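tool_call: predict_structure(chain=1)
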Amino acid sequence: MYNLFSKLVYRKEYSMRVIAGKARRRPLVSPEGLQVRPTTDRTKETLFNMIQHDVYDCDFLDLFSGSGAIGIEALSRGAKHAVFVDEHKAALTCIKENLNKTMLIEAADICSMHVVKALEQFNKRQQTFDIIFMDPPYNHGWESRVIPLIVSYGLLNEGGMIICESAIDTSMDFVDDLSCMILKEKYFKTNKFTFIG
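tool_result:
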């Protein structure tokens, strides 16, 4: 849900929805651009079926947020708090509108800055999370840059997990050199979820 080249256009078209929870069926808007890949409702539903027991009352971080659909789904399903990180104006506009329309904005913070800078800020504030979701642009190496920072800064609470959406052929071998491990992977036709803890 992230545009590397800032070619985002704010779209007043409702192309997604909240699947379950207190904001169920509420429509969501998404930013439109060259590199934007909104996570489909089917893929999102699969993800949350896998983590449904971990979401309630958790602190959730949504990196490369795009429309904010993943973090909003987490809040709808009972997450205590969610932080949304994106640096693009159109994405930030969408996130704010979607949070207002779902009436979940009081449980959210929107962080308008580059992901790496945001992680530095969380580290300085000693802010930690139970679930960290990231959906960076495919095939640009963000996984091997961001995940080691999350681990080295200690941003994940004990028992928490990082969930990374990436292209299906993205190598996650670098995780072997970190103080964590791949818990499982879920494959789709062109992409996958990697669960790290």
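agent: The first helix runs from residue 41 to 55. Proceeding to next step.
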